[in-house]
Amino acid sequence: MPVITCIDDLKHIYKRKTPKMFYDYCESGSYTEQTFRDNSSDFSKIRLRQRVARDLSDRTTDSVMIGRKVAMPVALAPVGSCGMQAPDGEIKAARAAAAFGVPFTLSTMSICSIEDVAAYSPDPFWFQLYVMRDEDFVDTIIERARAAKCSALVLTLDLQVLGQRHKDLKNGLSSPPKLTLPNMIDMAMRPEWALGMLGTPRRTFRNIVGHAKGVTDIANLMSWTNEQFDPKLDWSKVRRIRDQWGGKLILKGVMDPDDALMALDVGADALVVSNHGGRQLDGALSSIRMLPQIVRAVGEKTEVYMDGGIRTGQDIMKALALGAKGCLIGKAWLYGLGAMGEAGVTAAIEILRNELDVSMALTGTRNVRDIGPQVLMNPPAPGK
Question: Is the pTM for the entire model greater than 0.90?
Answer without folding.
Answer: yes
